[in-house]
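Example: Chalcone/stilbene synthase C-terminal domain-containing protein.
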Amino acid sequence: MELNHAIQRFLPGTHNAIDGRLSEESINFKLGRDLPAKIEDNIEEFCKKLVEKAGLVEFNDLFWAVHPGGPAILNRLESTLKLRSEKLECSRRALMDYGNVSSNTIFYVMEYMREGLKRKGGEEWGLALAFGPGITFEGILIRSLRQRTICMHISCIFICFLGWTHMSWNVLGYGHCLQYFKFN
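Written out as structure tokens, the predicted fold is:
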């Protein structure tokens, strides 16, 4: 797996769109009603910046690892980027099976992606996306060198690249990561 290019974008004036509160017992996120619209308005330009680094134009020629904040976010991402429905299948399945469990959700997406790639192989290039407080867009253009280990490497990349904005919100994310690598 090759981390080809990574970018981050903060959308000014969106500090209330994803609001995280830490308490003694947990962390609670409140997602604003305008979050899907804000993502929809900005995602295409953001993704184009990443894929042009690989000389690609068509979003459907990529594999996708998207942290599923909710169905509205995935629906808008799919329609705005004109993605075939199977491109976000792993994200939808993780959301359906586990819900949005904060940073941990990406590990469920990775597990489903790993299962799918074992069965059918995969594309050479992919995008990994996550959205954090602020609204902050995090994106990584990834080149698959060996499809069968793709998810393990994407997980490492997410931990390193998004650790301070996404994973650091939830200590359980690190525990799940250790469990993920131990059993795979």
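The two ends are 16 Å apart (CA to CA).
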